Amino acid sequence: MTVVAVTALGVGGATVLGALLGFLIKNIPHRYNDALLGFASGIMLAASFSGLITPSLERGNVWITVLGIFLGAGCLHLLDRFTPHLHKLSGVEPESHADSNIAKVMLFVMAIAIHNLPEGIAAGVGFGSGDHGAALTVAIGIALQNIPEGMVVISPLLLAGVSPRRTFLLALGTGMVEVFGTFLGYFAVSVSQAILPFALAFAGGTMLYVISDEMIPETHADGHERLATYSLLTGVCVMLITDTLMG
Asked: Which of 147, 136, 132, 141 is nearest to 44 (CA)?
């Protein structure tokens, strides 16, 4: 339980770390932002298979895993119908945010918070499986992805006229959603191990949806697709090496 609590704070704290970096680096070049998101995409892609989907297959059967993946993705699809796509908002250049109204910026923040919930659940479900090595792999991937997410929250809020203090609190709130999700996922599978194969696949499906629908389009929207692609491959390889060394 202590490991879960520390991991939950670490995953949520990565968003806060990104927010602090956002205050220091308000105008990060899009090229580097795309590279960082591409690397995080690769980390999450590898982690979704090694830490969630493969363990689901080992504990259940392929049909439960397939069903869980599609339902996990479908759940986020429904959420996306009510919140803006991250790449449509975070992909614009910082100076253009001055034309944005506060309602649009708050929708952006809400979109990140909503997407953080299933990511936290994914981390918690991994620990509920009892395989702490695989769970840590998933948590590391999510935490790395949260850093640039925390960064992109800051500039739109500040340029929309939100005070620095309130901006930081809003960024902190998006991270706390992930902490809640981690405990929710952990306790859900701890109560009933029978749902574990489905829960692992469901969490894997949510991660694959975020990668394909949000992160990759964001990194390919501004002419840096080659850099983003090789960054993604680097992220995948880093996780493969990490899994091998940890195994």
From this structure: 141
